[in-house]
Amino acid sequence: MSLTRSPLDSWLPRVPLGAWTEAAVDWATATLGPFFDGVAAVVEALVRPLDDLLNGVPAVVVVLLLAGLGWWLRGWKFALGTAVGLGLVAGMPYWEETMSTLAQVLVASTLALLMAIPLGVLVAENKRASAVARPVLDLMQTMPAFVYLIPAIFFFGIGTVPGVLATLVFSMPPGVRLTELGLRQVDKEIVQAAESFGAPPWMVLLRTKLPLALPTIMTGVNQVIMLALSMVVIAGMVGAGGLGDVIMFALSQVEVGSGFEGGIAVVILAVVLDRLTDSAGDRFPSARAQRLAREAA
Amino acid sequence: MSALTVQSLYKIFGRRADEAVRRLADGRPRAEALAGLPATAAVIDASFEVRPGEIFVVMGLSGSGKSTLIRMLNGLLRPTRGSVRVDGVELTTLKPAALRKLRREKISMVFQHFALMPHRTVVENAGYALEVAGLPRADRRERAMDALRMVGLTEWADNLPHDLSGGMRQRVGLARALAAGTEILLMDEAFSALDPLIRREIQDQLLELQAELGKTIIFITHDLNEAMRLGDRIAVMRDGRIVQIGTAEEILTDPANDYVAQFVADVDRTRILTAASVMEKPQQVLDVNAGPRVAAKALRESQTSVVYVTGPMKKFLGTVTEDEVLRALREGRPHLDGYVSTERVRTVTADTSVADLFADCAQSQHPVAVLDGHDRLIGVIPRITLLSALAAATPDEPAPDQDQAELVARKGEPA
Hints:
heterodimer; A: MetI-like fold; globular; B: Rossmann fold; 4-stranded antiparallel beta sheet; 18 helices
């Protein structure tokens, strides 16, 4: 709010966008209270047990499980890397927080994908929906991440729930976009072939378009998880717990050591999740077939 | 009764389609008619009938609207104006569900780039139409295998399309359409993506299958040779309009306009075929000093009605027909000299391209005479030879004789 407004600009109307937003949030808090309570309960019911589970079993079990998954998806080298990396995290004092963060990432990204993929299908099939969704997605993606935290606090108070929900909103756009892109990229002739034999739209979508779009959709899944991880740390600001808290505390106390430990834990978690989801996409028969076709071409 | 009838069909892309149709209706070229309109016309006033059991070829260069046209025949594209009737059913006004039913039961399609689903095995691809129709898995496989047997691919049934070569993939595409069991087959540039040798092979296979199954086939191509080889009748498209419909012979010998003539010419100039490469040995050649009796004997022996006459140094002089020989006999002349005519025969040089032979062939009553640099007769070209050569031969792939025989059998004698 600049006090030195040039006289030349005096004709410009003042736009109290901030005040409107506050009013809208106030109204939503007042009228939609029960709804938000319900949402909070659901998120809580998802995150808490997962967090308890991951922290309930010995760290060794988690490390071995993830390494085993890595072996299956990518081979022994990656499994070894996973074991060493997570072993390092387990050796640092923040294993518990790392597992909390993992639980939040998994819940937030799963919920985000449950919304993003159907929405992606809708916007791919419907031009008007696409025209509406595009600016909204742009807004969601470019809004500075922690702005989401403010209304989240209003609606849900302090804690894990606003953190997870702000994460969900922030990480959803690439899921929608890449689903749309994947579906639009499916070879038109193949879609026409399906249609030319009289296949109804749902069959074309489920048995032709989605299988062929799957590799791109899996890239979207990967992106959603990566964004969720980056946001979960920011969500530490609203007391979401996990590694975010560790890093926020280190920042406020200027503690280089614990800050670095928290940071490294995030990096290791990110690399493991990224590689795992990246290769999961290749395990679908359609992805394999298309990769083979590309290599042959 | 026709299998498929198209009447005054238009497809306009863009806005103000009605205005576009109105302007195009008087037959002006589309560039001129649509100047200033935010619309493009892909198909303009197309009308034709396809008879049951025939191969109807639509030929045109890219941008002539042929792919748009074929996609309106099964409703993949909605026509802007006009009518498409399949088996008496008007397709343009069908509701989506009824249109899908019609596609399942009456029309299937083969695509230029095969359009196989890469994540399904060959037999699953071949049985796709049956899956859509809701057949149980076992029946599906059985009928898909039957279709694969027709195209000779049973041992590849459980491979993915990726394992197959281009020609084999298109045979799967063909099997998929055949397995559907529909009467009408739409083939959109179906063989254009294949290399020439494979293309020939699969064309032969299609003709064989067609002889057996008698489907109604609408075949789109930009390749004149392919059109001539496959088509019972050919529609030539240009700039969205059908400019001529006729048999291969009609189109070659009697092009409706300069465009068709040029199209025929253009395609063939690229083929490098010359008169020398298609000519045959002249059956009866006599010296001008030979008597009419010799000529009569020669005619009788060769069962022809014309003798080619040469003069000194074997220079070609012209022809003598039965009538003239008879006249010479009646008038008791010792030589053919004086009866030799050049009116009924055209001459060309050995290096004349096949494309340039059409006019001569059409105007020459007798087989065209081919002369060398010294005007000596070295061969003749009957019309049927020219047509066979055109349809069967490409420069890098000399035509086996049996193909020519087949073609002659299929087309009959030219008019």
